[in-house]
Amino acid sequence: MSSQILLSGGDKYYSYSGEVFGDVSAPATISMITIDNTGLRDSLVYLQPFYGLPVSGTTGAQLGIEIKLDNTTIYKAQTGRSTDFNQVDNNIQLFMPRNSKIEVISLNTSGNNTQIRGINLMGYYL
To answer: Which fold does the domain 5-125 belong to in CATH?
Structure first.
């Protein structure tokens, strides 16, 4: 799932990517969540990335997260070692203006294309 789901109270929304991974080809980015319009109110957004076991223990195996707000990168982090995967990006908090587009992208290198990763998004209207 990568769409926005509004909760029954109308004051919160969520989205989650589930487990995603690439194939064994060249390094790539993988889109995990895209919400084209966050709604008519500003919101506070919490993102919780998660990662499976590293496929490779080399320094070239680097997962990361890129977050774009209205097609502009506002957050980007990629670890330098495979042992850092579960220590980076554990909780990301952002303010989102109304009617914004948010896109969450997984960054990866050829050493970890097949490594499982995902993200959960929770938004609270202000």
So the answer is: Jelly Rolls (2.60.120)
Other beta carbons within 10 Å of 9: 7
Query: Can you tell me the mean pLDDT for 54-58?
Result: 68
Q: What is the pLDDT of residue 34?
A: 93
Question: Which amino acid, residue 86?
Answer: N
Give the other-Cβ count within 10 Å of 116's Cβ.
Answer: 15
Domain spans of the chain, in order of start = 5-125
Cα dihedral 36/39/42/47 (nearest 10): -50
CB atoms under 10 Å from CB of 38, counted, come to: 21
Structure tokens at 23: 């194939």
Its pTM surpasses 0.70? yes
pLDDT at 83 over 60: no
